[in-house]
Amino acid sequence: MPDCKKQVIGLVGDACAGKSSVAKMFAKLGATVYDADAAVHKIYARPDVIDEVQKMFGDVTTDGKIDRVKLAAIVFSDLQKMKALTEQIVFPRTAREMEEQKAAWLLKTDSPVLLLDAPTLFEAGRADDCDRILYLGAPRERRIEWAKKRNWSEQELDRRDARLNAFFGSNSRKRERADAVVENDGSLDDLEKKIVEVWTRWIGT
Asked: Would you say residue 123 has pLDDT above 90?
């Protein structure tokens, strides 16, 4: 059994299912949160990474910065390019960031939980770093609605789902490996109640 005083929990799930909301709820309960997407933003701002991405994919910058929309248009339409981006550029660097934050959490905080908000946790080979894994799902119609808030069309969401499933394996496999599955199919209050229940079961009061 994991040490109840300190646990690493991985958060994975469907795209546009509300993982950022769940991360905020965990933080409210006392967790330290590692935000993989924010880490990738920082990585993409590094001059060495900009150079490497440019060499690999051509000009995908706007105003001297990596344009994630341009980059996504390339990698989500070509499986091999997605593998090159993640395996050669993203995963090695986010792994270092994750290890640094884990070390700081262990040594410098009283926080009982480090939540790894990292949708590609399995793909990056980091699932075994977690004591437990939480999978967040949501009804398709809700995911489409939330995708539109990111300026993604329904077709774009489907395209990303299909490409990620082809590269990383189906989400059903992640659900099977998760220690708990939460469905974001109600209000925010409903979701928070479910997260508090998971926290209480895993961490205590």
From this structure: no
